[in-house]
Amino acid sequence: METKLYKIDDLTKRTNEIEAAAALLRAGQVVAFPTETVYGLAANALDGAAVRKIFEAKGRPQDNPLIVHIASPDEMETVASSVPDSARALAAAFWPGPLTIILPKKDCVPDTVSAGLSTVAIRLPAHPVAQAVIRAAGVPLAAPSANISGFPSPTTARDVMDDMAGRIPAVLDGGACRYGIESTVITLVTDPPRILRPGAVTPAQLERVLGKVEVDETALQPLEAGKQAQSPGMKYKHYAPRAELSIVRGSLAHFLIYLKTHPGAADAALCFEGETPYIPLKSVTFGKKDDPLSQAQRLFDALRELDRTGAKKALARMPDAEGVGLGVCNRLFRAAGFRIVSNEKKDAIIGVCGGSGAGKSRLCALLADIGAEVIDADAVAREVTLPGSPVLSALQAAFGADILFPDGSLDRKTLASRAFGDPARTAKLTAITHPEILRRIESRALAAAENGQTVIIDAPLLFSSGLDRLCGLTVRLFASEDVRRARLKEREGLTDEEISRRFLSQETENLLAKKADLVICNDPSDDMQAQIKTIFF
Ligand code: TXA
Ligand code: MG
User: Fold this and answer.
1) pTM for this one?
2) Residue 464 alpha carbon to ligand 1 centre in Å
3) Within-domain flag for 522
4) Which residues line ligand 1 (CB under 6 A)?
5) What CA–CA distances, in Å, run from 320 to 275, 291, 457, 474?
6) Are both 123 and 178 inside the same structural domain?
7) Mean pLDDT (whole number) for 110-127
8) What does the pLDDT look like over 506-528, one tens digit per residue?
């Protein structure tokens, strides 16, 4: 069968195309049309034989009922046996729009539409092309999403053609869908009303109209084995790309840790805008991290794009499940077959490095503000030489009893004058102090990680001390040398020479560049806060 593609750019000038589609529908044929959620595959909802063609074209299981699309709220009465006030209130608040209301059905609705249930799902779409087609056809239209059953729903006419070319007579192209995920489905047959499928109309918005509303547990979980699905669609494998998809819990940092600790886990990534430069894989974006509407809009398209990369295994970032995000998670979790992975707690230890003046302290303070446990290796180094400590006694034995002030505390200057300058003596100092410093850092880091915290280790010699081996991820803070010099002069009043000496005692920028997993730039022209937000929030 040849599939005609009608582009409806300007509705007023495309009455012929709309009329052609309507004529096909009246003749019992199937036509794909755009809605504001996803593209639908429509047939006359009152004609069982026509509706059967939808199931054939999609390869859809017979027990999964369809949504009936109407062009005005009054038409609820033509398919529902009773229309409660709550349905009228919902219609007034959200129609035309991405909400489907389930009501008891009238006998005129064939069993093929309701899949034998006593209820019918009804929606008044907002897309002007959808409305024009329903009106022109003069009958309510049953329409599931216009994809092959199980695959991601189509959000452009091209997606529809990819799945349906040759299977149906016509596709109306009304541009990209505004919402990108299917309508919110709510049943008014239960008390309280229950959301069977989350979408762009959120639980909070529905509660404002209806009072208490429940969200079906299948929103974010697979249907329990042996349990009856409230919404038959929720029991099927859904929205799945061909690539095997898993979702990584946590921030981008956690995602990167997972990648690093599971080499070969993925050959492509599904991430948020702005994250691509940090991810060492082919990446496809699906919206902005803190904008679930933009994620919804992109999600199915991104899943299809992912498959076009040829990836066999992919990892996705985890969206927030709030508001519209609940709908995004509902689709993404199903697309991933509910494979949601996390890091081992011990892997959430992140080492930060960078020369003096790069801004490490500021980075650490910002991370502590969002609940990270920051371990400052310098502070630990001071702790292990407190009066009475075994390390202090060992230092006295090696470098002289008089390296203490009268109050018993360590005189660092005197110690430095004896220990530095001679490699053997410096090595001795390191051998006495480092094991205890490392032991303390490690035990503290593991305890905080076990507590579920993200741990930040701020160590001047992250790599040469071997502390990096404790870290799931290492982050380098970078600022150009002249910027760092200027900061140190201003902040600590150091001379050029003192600054040079300090730089020489630190890990070289070359080493850091080679070893660190990612870099945050902190020259005056860089927005460090934005980078931190991208990586750690
Ligand atoms: O946004 C949308 O709703 C799109 C566009 C085309 O309007 N349509 C759509 O249809 O997503 P479909 O068939 O892909 O999904 C319909 C969902 C399925 O999960 C189905 O099980 C559920 O609605 N459903 C339909 N009738 C139902 C009923 N009487 N009781 C419970 N769930 C029902
Ligand atoms: Mg569908």
Assistant:
1) 0.94
2) 59
3) yes
4) 35, 37-38, 40, 64-67, 100, 102, 114, 117, 119-121, 123, 125, 143-145, 182-183, 185, 196-197, 231-234
5) 16, 9, 27, 25
6) yes
7) 97
8) 999 999 999 999 999 999 999 99
